[in-house]
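Private note to self, pasted from the team thread so I don't lose it. Backbone tokens:
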């Protein structure tokens, strides 16, 4: 996250760091001044005067400038040389101003993009505990930087480092705090960062060596409920404030998270009461891609991964639900794809250059889309099946025949045939 923007006058004040420094005063190959950085470090080191310093706007501006500077590796090396992590460790306990805490944690997050800094930080158990303690903060900007810092560290962590994090998380009940944020926050940036953090935890902590601890600490019913709440808040309520790339990133990582949560032997038992949450997320995702395909005339291969993931999720959790939970979204997408394939023979509304890509795309969609629909028809109630067969008509046979999984295809084919036979017998009698 970037520091808050400042006025022109404040920017001029902060420009001290990048003004042409005197000979011998530059940091590495940058244009930044060593003296500027050393002045900040001295202020941080003097705990007797630090409380007064943080009240000055100029000190906040200088820290913001330092935050920007840490994008340069030479600056990071210079700060390491002067033991910046130790300075922050001793300074943070006397700082109560959320904005200053946010900036300092943000600086540490930037520093954590370098392996040698991560290696140093992972040896500072007390400092890690202090930083994790800020997960209890009620300031969204502080929380964003803590989550970002953890992500940066896990990206570069070795197995032994991941084990350290997994030992620390239960001590502060990290999972419950993360789930609370996802379930209750309305801050879009915080929610997106929390989802990224959840996905990072699944990617780097749900591994062979730490899988048991991951299961014990993170696999709770609240995990799926909070995930659905955060997902819905972004996709539905904050949709207009999201860039397309950001929105689609949320869709993709949400399903990656769900796959991790349902990848355990006891997943069905744990999430047996969260089927509505799961099917709502599936439905919202499919509706998004269906509208993108029809309204925006855009091809997106991510939807194939979403469909494949949905099949796995529904099968593992043995989900049965009302058809409007996700089947209707599938049905609308199926009809859209069928229409495109039909029109493709005689031209369509897509650009000429996209015609070949479109053909390949729709072919790849047919099997997972038909499979997800058949997974529903295999287990739905007879009342629901009657309604579906009535709506689909002859289209049902095409859907069933498009399924590559022979077991599912055979089961649904038999069920629909038997059901139609019984209906005919009832009518005849």
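Design output:
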């Amino acid at each position: 996250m970037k520091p808050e923007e400042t006025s022109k006058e404040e920017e001029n004040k902060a420009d001290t760091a990048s003004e042409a420094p005197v000979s011998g005063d530059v940091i590495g190959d940058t244009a930044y001044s060593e003296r500027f950085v050393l002045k900040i470090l001295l202020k941080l080191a003097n705990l007797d005067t630090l409380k007064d310093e943080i009240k000055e706007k100029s000190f906040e501006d200088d820290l913001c400038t330092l935050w920007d500077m840490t994008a340069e590796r030479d600056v990071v090396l210079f700060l390491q040389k002067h033991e910046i992590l130790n300075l922050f460790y001793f300074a943070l306990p006397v700082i109560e101003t959320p904005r200053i805490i946010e900036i300092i944690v943000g600086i540490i997050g930037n520093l954590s993009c370098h392996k040698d800094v991560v290696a140093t930080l992972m040896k500072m158990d007390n400092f890690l505990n202090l930083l994790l303690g800020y997960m209890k903060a009620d300031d969204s900007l502080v929380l964003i930087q803590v989550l970002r810092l953890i992500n940066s560290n896990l990206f570069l962590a070795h197995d032994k480092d991941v084990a350290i994090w997994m030992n620390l998380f239960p001590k502060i009940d990290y999972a419950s705090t993360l789930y609370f944020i996802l379930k209750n926050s309305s801050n879009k940036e915080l929610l997106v960062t929390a989802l990224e953090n959840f996905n990072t935890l699944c990617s780097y902590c749900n591994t062979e060596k730490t899988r048991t601890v991951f299961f014990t600490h993170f696999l709770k019913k609240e995990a799926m409920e909070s995930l659905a709440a955060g997902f819905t808040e972004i996709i539905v309520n904050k949709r207009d404030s999201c860039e397309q790339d950001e929105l689609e990133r949320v869709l993709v990582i949400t399903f990656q998270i769900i796959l991790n949560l349902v990848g355990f032997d006891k997943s069905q038992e744990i999430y047996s009461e969260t089927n509505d949450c799961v099917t709502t997320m599936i439905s919202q995702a499919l509706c998004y891609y269906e509208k993108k395909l029809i309204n925006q005339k855009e091809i997106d291969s991510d939807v194939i991964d979403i469909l494949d993931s949905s099949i796995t999720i529904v099968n593992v959790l043995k989900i049965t639900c009302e058809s409007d939970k996700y089947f209707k979204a599938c049905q609308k997408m199926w009809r859209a794809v069928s229409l495109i394939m039909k029109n493709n023979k005689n031209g369509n509304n897509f650009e000429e250059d996209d015609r070949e890509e479109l053909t390949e795309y729709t072919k790849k969609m047919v099997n997972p889309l038909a499979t997800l629909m058949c997974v529903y028809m295999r287990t739905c109630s007879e009342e629901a099946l009657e309604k579906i067969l009535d709506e689909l008509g002859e289209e049902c046979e095409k859907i069933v025949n498009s399924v590559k999984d022979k077991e599912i295809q055979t089961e649904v084919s038999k069920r629909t045939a038997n059901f139609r036979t019984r209906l005919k017998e009832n009518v005849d009698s």
